[in-house]
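This section describes the prediction task in plain terms. A model, or a person checking by hand, is given the sequence of a single protein chain and must write out its three-dimensional structure as a string of tokens. No templates, partner chains or ligands are provided. The sample shown here is typical of the held-out split.
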Amino acid sequence: MKKINTLEIRPYQLLCLVCRQGRKNPAAEPYFQEAQLDRIQAAVRADPALPLTLRCNTSSVFRHQNPGRTADTPEGPLYNDLRDLTILQRLGLVPGATRPAIDCFSGIPDAIPACMGVCAYPANKAPGWPACRYAASGNYERGLAAGLDRIVPQRTEAEKQAVKRKSAQAVAAAGRLRIRPHHLLCMACFHAGRPAGEIEPIPADNLAEAIAAMQRNPDIPVELIQGPCMICPPCSAYDAPSNLCVGNKSMSLRDEKKDLDTLRRIGLKYGDVLPAWELFQRIFDAIQNTTEVCGFGDGQERAREWRVCGGMTGKTVYRQARQAGLGIPGVKISE
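The expected answer:
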């Protein structure tokens, strides 16, 4: 098995990285283990998909991953243990959890909008307990407001616009479309039963362009591929150097299962090539609504990494597109 490099950090260091970017005077506000925070930030900026392993000290059955006290901050072991476990609990994770860096940071704004109750507690709720010296400074909240793209870099609008123009032209000129399987369902929901003339391209993907290519030429070959495809280049979550989806909340993991579920239901595999009309004939014959694939069969969200896409809206627009055969000549739907 290929060894994957991961970066082991303490959960509190996620918050320190956010907090310190909100400080007003960096020279006068040094953070504990500043050099280590610099190394973590540099590594994450270089690779937003870098796996981070969140280790902390515990006396429970999770003690197998205890990192020791070297990185404890000066407030003491009980404070350090409670802070780390509170962060993991808020993020829905456990000690030793390994997640892509972008996933670790993407959950922070919603789960931990303020550091009170994590890095410090009201005095009457924590008599005699220490607090981080910056907990009441407003640094953390300013750091959040500044945006996490300073820690985990985002694609610029100019870059995405340039890529959109080039990739849309490539789809229009292609003699064969290369599409990941679940994007066929995305096309259906995007189409939503509208006539071809009403389908306007959007900046974030090439769904409209792919639909238009299939409507112009129902026999155009479509190859089912694994991972990002011709739809993806303009997307904020697409990382061109690695050709990976680095969407937060494990978008790529969720989408991979949707790809495999789609292939299973239509009886195909990666690398198979079919004319567009025949492929969508299979899709619409085999998949009655989006819950079967995009809702993992029952529509229940069991973790943030396994979000359900579309909900009732997805079911409705998919049904409309299915009834219209996606506007592709040759697709016939019998209820």
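For orientation: The radius of gyration is 24 Å.
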